[in-house]
Structures are given as C-alpha cells and as structure tokens.
C-alpha cells in the first residue's frame, strides 16, 4: 500500500502532524534558548551531534545489566555504545572505572550512599545554605532522612569552605562517607585537603563534580580523580552532554558501584543518553574543549569584575570557576524579583540563597549566574561587559517593563551574532 504524506501510518508521521501542541512548544523553546542570554550556571547548549544521539532509536532498547552481561538479547549495538561511553569517559578523566548508567546526578549520588553507607550511618556534606546540593544530606532529601547527616559550612567572614570545621566535625562524628563538591560555590574545591581529612577518620571520600566536570575535563579546575575514592557528575552542565550522570571510581570500588546502580537502584539504562554521553566525551577530548573550559572561567572572572565595578557584591569577592553568587542586598532588591525582572529583559538566571542568608529560601537575597552556556555560543570578555551593564540597568529599574523590553531586543540582537549550538532557526 502506498501512502501520501498526509496519510502516513501513525508511527511515521512527524511530531508537528501528530502533536502540534508539543511541536509548537518545542519550537518556542528553541527560539527562547536562541534569543536569550542563558546565565543559569547549571545549563548549557549541547551540540547537534549530542542531540541526534539522544533522539535516536536507542531509546527503544532494554538492556538491564552491563556490556557482555545483559538480561535481554539483541545487545550487539548497545553493548558497543556503552563500552565506547565508558572507555572515553575513563580516558578523559584518567579513571580506573566508569559507570555511565545513572539516570541523573541525584540517582548517581544515591548509588554512592547505597555502595558505602547503611541507612542510619553517618555521612557529611556541605550544607545547602552554604552552596551544597540537596543530595549531600540535606534534611528534605532522602539522603538527610535515611542517613545521619552532619553538615559543614563556609566561614562567616569570607564565605569559603571552612576546612578546620570539616576536620573538627569529621573527628567528632566519624562519617562513613564524606562529600565534597557543591552546587553554588564559586571557588576551587581543595580535593587533597578533603582526602587528608577522610584518611584521618577512615571515611570514603566522594567528590561530586556535577557543576565543574567540564572544567575538570578541560583542565580549568583541578581533578579529584585518583584523590577521591569515587567521583560523581551530571553530564549536562559544563560537561555539555545529555541529561544524565556518570560515576568514576578506583578499581577496588568498581563492583560495589556497579551493583549499587544496577540492580541496587535502577532498571534498564537509558541507552540514547549513554550514546549522547559517548559523543560528549568525544567532543570533550578535542583540543577545542580545553579552550572552551578556560574561556568559561575567563568569562566568569570578567563578568565578576564588571559587576563588582558596578557595585554588585560577589560572595567570596569573585570566582575561580564558572559561576557567580551575588548578594543583592547593596542593590536594594531581593533575588526573586530581580531574577524575574532579568528574565523579562532576556537575561535568565536563578534566585539563590547566599551563605547566612537572613531571608527565606523562596525569597532569598542572592542571584546565581554562570558562563557555561554563553561561552558555548562563543561570547567573550567584551560581551561580559555588556551583560554587566544590562544587569545593572535592570537592578536600578526593576519594575520598568518598557526598559526591560528594550534590553530584551538588544539581547536578541547580540544573540543573533552568536548562534546557539544545536539550534537551527
Ligand atoms: C546538579 C547537581 C546534582 C543533581 O543533578 P540532577 O541531574 O539535577 O539530579 C547533584 N550534585 C550537584 C553538586 C549538582 O550541582
């Protein structure tokens, strides 16, 4: 039977034909991502190649288990995809072992708990208000409910991680598992110092590099691989891959980590994501990715300087990595209304608590921004000056929607000179 385009069998019709509502929303999101300045520190633009792998038929395949040891047949291609992903990630980071199956960063971290600490045992991590992640033992997370969690923080004077406090707390509470790494911390993580503390108390050291794994791969932040017992990361932040995660570990922990991910926590791996991770790891191994990682940091430093010159107060006074945490108190505006005003001006960030924030988490004093996405578009130091000027103007006129619309038009114009990877308008 022959079909004309309009009467193709259901499974062959394009998204726009089958579901115009979703197709229109995807299209609108493409336009939004292309025409705004994405300053959310955890976001990025994946390449067209990563998008293609992620949108492939690999989403159809069940493959519980690991390459060579599956519970379903028909794994000829999938085994090779996962092998390539594991091998590339191991090579890129110099790790003994890699597991690329965790569905996202939070399940990857949960697998580490499952591998190394029984429920009720003590774990330690950076507290959420100090820039730590929910999964490092914060009370509302399963990790703070099922384990006895002790939070360390940052110093009151300079807002840097207080390693003396980490050591004191570790000696007192003897955690099984010690987390380092953060979600809103603009400074270099001192992995060897955490290693020394973990050794002193016999703890497993887990480094969560979800935000900075692209910087680590590109040599723009020191690596915890070979120092920490286990390293977790999302693959969709600075690493610039699909939404997913990876766990790197020393050979002695490989079996425990693999067992914790499957069958401990998950069923079938998301093979389309695994393929996307393999592509991202290949891209990250190219020399241009080193340039990218260093440009992300150079842009963040330039943006920090330009904002400080305009009277913005930066937590810790600046940044070593891709992100900036801004205390808006001196600007006389709170984080949420400011983030909302910026969004109307085409500048997209997120409101965030600052250390020792006197305001509530849903209405905090800070804004978190970062440079991974805008650097992927090729923006550089000159553009950081323009962004700082727009941010200052919005801070001075937070309810002036006419002005915000004018800035949004200027933002669109600037964006037109820096095409967003993966998006064809
Ligand atoms: C983003 C992040 C995660 C969680 O990743 P999801 O993919 O959102 O679950 C875990 N740890 C840190 C430090 C993060 O920044």
Mean pLDDT: 97
Number of helices: 16
Radius of gyration of CA atoms, rounded to a whole number = 22 Å
CATH structural class of the largest domain: Alpha Beta
Q: How many domain modules?
A: 2
Q: Percent range for helical residues? A: 40-55%
Shape: globular
Low-confidence stretches: none
- What gap, in angstroms, lies between the N and C termini? 36 Å
Strand content: 5-15%
- Side by side, the strands of the main sheet go 4-10-9-8-7-5-6
Bound molecules: pyridoxal-5'-phosphate
Give a brief outline of the structure.
The chain has 425 residues and is an alpha/beta fold. Helices cover 43% and strands 13% of the residues.
3D structure, described in words:
- With 425 residues, the protein is of the alpha/beta class.
- The chain folds into 2 domains: 53-284, 3-Layer(aba) Sandwich (Aspartate Aminotransferase, domain 2), CATH 3.40.640; 296-415, Aspartate Aminotransferase, domain 1, CATH 3.90.1150.10.
- It has helices at residues 15-18, 20-35, 48-54, 76-93, 105-116, 142-145, 163-173, 191-201, 213-217, 254-265, 271-284, 287-309, 335-344, 372-376, 381-396, 401-416, and strands at residues 37-38, 65-66, 69-70, 97-99, 122-126, 148-152, 177-180, 204-208, 230-234, 245-249, 313-314, 323-327, 347-348, 350-352, 366-370.
- The strands form 4 sheets. A 7-stranded mixed sheet has the order 4-10-9-8-7-5-6, sandwiched between helices.
- Strand 7 (177-180), helix 8 and strand 8 form a beta-alpha-beta unit.
- Helix 3 packs antiparallel against helix 11 (271-284), helix 4 packs parallel to helix 11 (271-284) and helix 12 packs parallel to helix 15 (381-396).
- The radius of gyration is 22 Å and the shape is globular.
- The model has no long low-confidence stretch (mean pLDDT 97).
- The protein binds pyridoxal-5'-phosphate.
- Pyridoxal-5'-phosphate (PLP) is lined by residues 42, 104-106, 109, 133, 135, 181-183, 208, 210-211, 234.
């Amino acid at each position: 039977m022959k079909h004309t385009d309009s009467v193709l069998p259901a499974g062959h019709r394009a998204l726009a034909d089958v579901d115009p509502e979703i197709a229109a929303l995807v299209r609108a999101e493409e336009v939004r991502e292309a025409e705004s300045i994405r300053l959310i520190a955890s976001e990025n633009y994946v390449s067209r190649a990563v998008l293609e792998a992620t949108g492939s038929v690999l989403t159809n395949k069940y493959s519980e288990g690991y390459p060579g040891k599956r519970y379903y047949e028909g794994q000829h291609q999938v085994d090779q995809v996962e092998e390539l992903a594991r091998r590339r990630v191991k090579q890129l980071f110099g790790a003994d072992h890699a597991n690329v199956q965790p569905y996202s960063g939070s399940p990857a971290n949960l697998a580490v708990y499952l591998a190394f600490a029984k429920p009720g045992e003590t774990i330690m991590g950076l507290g959420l208000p100090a820039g730590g992640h929910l999964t490092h033992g914060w009370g509302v997370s399963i990790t703070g409910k099922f384990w006895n969690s002790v939070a360390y923080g940052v110093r009151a004077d300079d807002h840097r991680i207080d390693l003396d406090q980490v050591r004191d707390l570790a000696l007192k509470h003897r955690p099984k598992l010690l987390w380092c790494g953060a979600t809103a911390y603009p400074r270099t993580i001192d992995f060897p110092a955490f290693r020394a503390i973990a050794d002193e108390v016999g703890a497993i050291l887990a480094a969560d590099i979800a935000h900075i794994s692209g910087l680590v791969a590109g040599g723009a932040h020191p690596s915890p691989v070979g120092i920490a017992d286990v390293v977790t990361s999302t693959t969709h932040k600075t690493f610039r891959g699909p939404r997913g995660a990876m766990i790197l570990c020393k050979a002695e922990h490989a079996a425990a980590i693999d067992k914790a991910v499957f069958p401990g926590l998950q069923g079938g791996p998301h093979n389309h994501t695994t393929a996307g991770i393999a592509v991202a790891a290949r891209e990250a191994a190219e020399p241009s990715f080193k340039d990218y990682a260093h440009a992300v940091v150079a842009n963040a430093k330039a943006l920090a300087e330009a904002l400080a010159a305009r009277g913005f107060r930066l937590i810790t006074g600046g940044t070593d990595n891709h992100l900036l945490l801004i205390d808006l108190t001196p600007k006389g505006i709170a984080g949420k209304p400011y983030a909302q005003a910026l969004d109307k001006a085409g500048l997209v960030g997120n409101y965030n608590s600052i250390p020792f924030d006197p305001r509530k988490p849903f209405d905090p004093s800070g804004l978190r921004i970062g440079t991974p996405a805008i650097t992927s578009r090729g923006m550089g130091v000159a553009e950081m000056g323009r962004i700082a000027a727009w941010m200052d103007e919005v801070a001075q006129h937070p309810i002036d929607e006419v002005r915000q619309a004018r800035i949004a038009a200027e933002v669109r114009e600037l964006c037109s000179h820096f095409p967003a990877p993966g998006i064809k308008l």
